[in-house]
Amino acid sequence: MNRLSRSILLGALTLLPAPLACAQDKAPATPPTSTDAMVARASDLLQDAEASWGEDREHAESVLHEGVALLDAVESSSAAPGAELERTLGASYLLLGENGRAILHLRRAQKLDPTSRAIRETLDAARARVGSPPPPDASERAKRAVLFWRGFVSRRALLVAAIGAWVIAWTLLLARRLGAPTSMAKLGLASLVLSFVPAGALASEEVITRLREDAVVVQDGVIARNGPSNDLYPATFTEPVEPGLEVVVLERRDGWARARLASGQDTWLPNAAIEAVTPRRASR
Length: 284
Fold this sequence. Notes:
alpha+beta; 5-stranded antiparallel β-sheet
């Protein structure tokens, strides 16, 4: 277990982007306030935790908690947190044994960068610890067909391809208007049609993501109920659900969420016990 924990944290540290991995100055004694200072301080703390994990476990966990708290603050305040920031949070929470938070942040990282092998492997390790797969939904087969490109082509590559084809198309069409051969118009129209392929792939993913609300249980001791009330409905299971359980939210009512599990069974969970994989930034 120690070897696995160290490898997870070390992997997170070595894959951090430059602002996270290359903090040059020692952090000041007072708590940092700017985003850059918080990231730099968190980087120092995570590296300290990795270095001292085998020798002083108590110290390592203490500084790891502090670093995670700083990165959580950065993630919460950012309109568009990066995939590596989310992965670092997920790997750190996994190291601390907080499986719910680990899977939540790793799912967010995978949404931002579905082509990353490191994110996929860390998420697989977290799911193995929880022992529960993510739930499918009724449109899963159609979703997989539409989003077949995920895991192979990055969003950035699709966006560049769409913009490039669009610019080439209108350049060729303009050249035809200025007297270029007719073949320029044909090539321009072909490029215009081609630009809709990557643009459509990006649009389809956005629509599918908005139609389905994935969430993760992040609290301990959560009692799933057969309805949206602790007093009126019995427990769905004899034991509390485990943090890290992944669900699809079907509806929300009176502080509760009707959630679908991997087994296809529906149950009700308190809203406070789960967090959406795609956070509602506008409400923060």
